[in-house]
Amino acid sequence: MDLKSDSYIVMNDGNKIPVIGFGTYASENFAEESFPRNLMEDATKVAIEVGYRHIDCAYIYGNEAEVGNAIRAKIADGTVRRENIFYTGKLWNTFHSPHLVRPALEKSLQQLQLDYMDLFLIHLPTGLKPGDDLMPVDENGHYIFHYTDLRETWEALEECKDVGLVKSIGVSNFSSKQLELILSKPGLKYKPVCNQVECHIYLNQKKLLEFCKSQDIVLVGYSVLGTSREGKWIDQNAPILLEDPVLKSIAKKHKKSPAQVALRYHLQRHIIVLAKSFTTARIKENFQVFDFQLPPDDMEALEGLNQNLRYVPAKLSIEKFEAHPNYPFHDEY
Predict the structure, then answer these.
(1) Which end of the chain lies in a sparser environment, N or C, as judged by fewer CB atoms within 10 Å?
(2) Fold of the domain built from segment(s) 8-326
(3) Helix, strand, or coil (residue 308)
(4) 250-290: pLDDT as tens digits
């Protein structure tokens, strides 16, 4: 697979998505670790300078204003034009009710100071009680669920696309059954262009990838390099992905870092990859994945590392979200 730094995949609506994106997760809303927001603003500027043209953010991260500042600064200094940036935003769980979708998108655009998003996703299928509290809990500390038919939420996204607030619409953390629910909706106007999910060498999403390809839906992978070790979210006994001996051995053979090989593996599977870092050296390193190719034996060895291991919902989500009628991880894929 011939990949260049400006490579992209054409989605089912004809719009192009760059194959590598810069992740901006740094939420103070539900993380034990606190990341100063100015760090993400500076990191996003570096990413754009390095060559990233795909920026992935979300309302729940609480840093849309800072990410927007970075994008607009790089447009103002002539590094890029707006049409060269592919910006992804996400609809949070408390805004699933159809009448809340457009206002939520408009609020994000206001914080970003952008006129439109390139891609807008339903962040999670598990709706929460609408209101100012983004993580509403009851007196027992349990999330207060809210059920909205995902097909109705999807129709509201379609309307946002029709009025030009967003160019492409998709989903995140959906199972194949939930995708089928949208795809089989009577009167469907636009198919989801993508499904953004956790994807890495320990969770290679082979079956979900095959399903998405069969429906002309792009798979976008987050946590491709593993994840931070936040105690609130992550099982501290989970393996550290970038220390995997097979991955390290292949990286040494190619004179690349384990992170570069992990990213390259998914790129060669036609998966869009998201990489996040606050460190200038790592931001640059993670983008240097276009000058080598993994041969079939290396791809096979990495394929063999799959454990169907989820980092992200390992603790908090399973304990508190699995009773939700739209919880996606009961399904095999």
Answers:
(1) N
(2) TIM Barrel (3.20.20)
(3) coil
(4) 999 999 999 999 999 999 999 999 999 999 999 999 999 99
Measured between alpha carbons, how far is 290 from 19 in angstroms, rounded to an integer?
11
Q: Please tell me the distance from the alpha carbon of residue 292 to that of residue 137, in angstroms, as a whole number.
A: 48
Q: Which of 25, 59, 61, 311 is catalytic?
A: 61
Q: Encoding tokens for residue 196?
A: 């953004």
Which residues have a Cβ under 8 Å from the Cβ of 286 and sit 6 or more positions away? 20, 225, 259, 260, 263, 275, 277
For the chain, domain boundaries: 8-326
**What is the distance of C-alpha 94 from the center of its chain?**
18
- Angle, nearest 10°, between helix axes 37-50 and 64-76? 40
123 is in an annotated binding site: yes
Helix (H) or strand (E) holding 221: strand 218-222
Half-sphere exposure for 297 (CA within 13 Å, toward CB): 3
For 189-225, how does the pLDDT look when each residue is reduced to its tens digit (9 = 90+)?
A: 999 999 999 999 999 999 999 999 999 999 999 999 9
User: In 3D, which of 8, 1, 6, 3 has the Cα closest to residue 272?
Assistant: 8
Catalytic residue check, 61: yes
Q: Whole-model pTM?
A: 0.95
Helices (H), 131-183: 150-162, 176-183
| H or E element that contains 269 | none
